[in-house]
Design goal:
The protein has 304 residues and is α/β, with parallel strands linked by helices. It contains ten helices and ten strands. The strands form four sheets. Strands 1-2-3-8 form a four-stranded parallel beta sheet, with helices on both faces. A two-stranded parallel ribbon has the order 4-7. The chain has a two-stranded parallel ribbon with strand order 5-10. α6 runs parallel beside α8 and α6 packs across α10. The structure holds ligand F7E.
């Protein structure tokens, strides 16, 4: 049996829904976890304008429901009676909370100015996690993660939209790529490196929040240039700007200062931007060249 299959056979799935408090309490009671990672959210920023209320419920209030499930199952009363043991909690906070940035690069101390209903919901979850730590003494932390990508990224996000398009055009399966704002800048890193940081955050003596990013920022245009270069194409022959993909309010530039994570967690990203883009384009070329490679139509579409 392959290593991945062996690992998957060790995984037990238990149902729970961020909109259903009872289901989360049952899941925590049943599993009795040492650690809970809340990576669930409506995470596609444009969708948060078209489904703002749902985004608030899932991405914002969903955090409250997970924290409540942990509090109740740990026997911590609302008056802060010490509970049984400690379930450690990780919240996936986001660089989208910085939004219209007040300073650059951004640290744990940078003020928030979110620019989308998604960013606003993440700020709620972030402060709630901090509040449960302070109110109940829970080991609850937020990782403020900047954009993290991999070949498994959904096709609605720009990195994968570009890597898939470069691969499709190279293989003669498509001719054009329609994009929005090419001048927005992001601090893109490899998701695998960032998962290591999440795990490290939960095994510290003191629960604290950390910014996680590479400290290097690139425009969407340089992402496109790199991806098309890897595929042996000239991006200018294929990329078209389409106003349909421009957001009502944009986050122009993000760049992380992850000094605290470097010093206290000993965390360093191992993958550079150029290698990340190469990995994604090569993976999509392989995927699309394989028999039935496009059969899995779970590839997201950039729909609002
Ligand atoms: O957009 C620009 C777009 O959708 C990046 C989520 O994981 O990271 C992600 O949020 C940039 C934006 O990611 C297209 O305007 C141009 O400036 O890949 P994205 P995001 O919005 O930064 C943060 C950390 C999260 O927490 C989120 O959950 O690319 N852009 N043209 C485009 N973006 C998309 N999706 N499609 C375009 O055609």
């Amino acid at each position: 049996m392959s290593k991945v299959r062996q690992q998957l056979s060790d995984v037990r799935l238990v149902r729970g829904d961020l909109l259903d408090q009872g289901s989360l309490i049952s899941a925590v009671e049943r599993v009795q976890p040492d650690e809970v990672y809340n990576l669930a959210a409506i995470s596609y920023v444009p969708m948060s304008w078209s489904q703002a209320e749902l985004t608030g419920e899932v991405t914002g209030l969903g955090v409250l429901r997970v924290l409540e499930a942990i509090r109740v199952c740990s026997g911590i009363s609302a008056s802060r009676t010490p509970g049984r043991g400690q379930i450690r909690f990780y919240q996936a906070s986001s660089s989208e909370m910085f939004g219209q940035v007040r300073e650059s690069p951004q640290t744990e101390g940078t003020a928030f100015h979110p620019r989308s209903p998604y960013g606003v919901a993440k700020v709620y979850g972030h402060f709630l996690t901090q509040n449960y730590r302070e109110s109940y003494g829970m080991y609850a932390v937020s990782g403020i993660l900047f954009n993290h990508e991999s070949p498994r990224r959904g096709a609605e996000f720009v990195s994968r939209k570009v890597s898939l398009a470069a691969a499709k055009i190279k293989l003669g399966l498509d001719r054009q790529l329609r994009l929005g704002n090419l001048s927005a800048s992001r601090d893109w890193g490899f998701a695998g490196d960032y998962v290591r940081a999440m795990q490290l955050m939960l095994v510290q003596e003191q629960p604290e929040d950390y910014v996680i990013g590479t400290g290097v920022t690139h425009t969407v245009q340089s992402l496109v240039e790199r991806a098309f270069e890897v595929a042996g194409l000239n991006w200018r022959d294929h990329v078209v700007c389409d106003a349909a993909f421009i957001r009502p309010a944009e986050v122009d530039q993000l760049c992380a200062d992850a000094s605290k994570a470097r010093q206290r967690l000993g965390w360093e990203p191992a993958t550079k931007f150029e290698d990340l883009v190469t990995m994604m384009v090569e993976s999509d070329l392989e995927l699309l060249s394989a028999p039935g490679g496009l059969a899995d139509d779970s590839f997201g579409h950039d729909v609002w």
